[in-house]
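From the pipeline queue, job 12 of 40. The input is one protein chain; the requested action is below.

Action: predict structure.
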Amino acid sequence: MSHHLFILSPADSPIYSLTHHSTRAAASTVSPLASNLPTWSTSAFAGTLTALSGASSVAQHTPSGPVKMGGGQDRHVIQMIANASLDAIEDVMRKENAMYLRAVDKFNEWTVSAFVTPGNVKFVLLHEAKNDEGIRAFFMEVWEMYVKAQLNPFHGLISSSAFDGRIRASAKKYL
């Protein structure tokens, strides 16, 4: 089970991203579209459809040998889902007066949870399993680390390996 965290500035430009692979077991789900995809197809489009459908990975045969594709793990698909969820986050922000917005969007097996700071910095987390309390605690800890990093005049947020290490430790703890 994997989690993908994106920290976005108020202008929705990426500040930080993290991919965390959890050792906790998750229920496996297969998309209805995934069961209809042919595994023998050699087109690049089939690999994209497999990735978008959330199907388990298939081997695409190319002249240089088999290439593993799909599984919803392709980085560009994850970024597309996170980017597409920004409109849903804005809609929920207008309706609710809370920082932790819970699950704001769903795309196949991916659920998008969000946390918005008072300065309109968005924390977007893509995850496969429901864990509301763990995700809320993770967001609160990430927010605390983000504020501390912003208040430190001697270190940049992006270049700080300490910030990255603390985020990874928090992800391991809560996710």
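Job complete. The helical segments are 32-35, 44-53, 75-84, 86-95, 132-151, 161-174.
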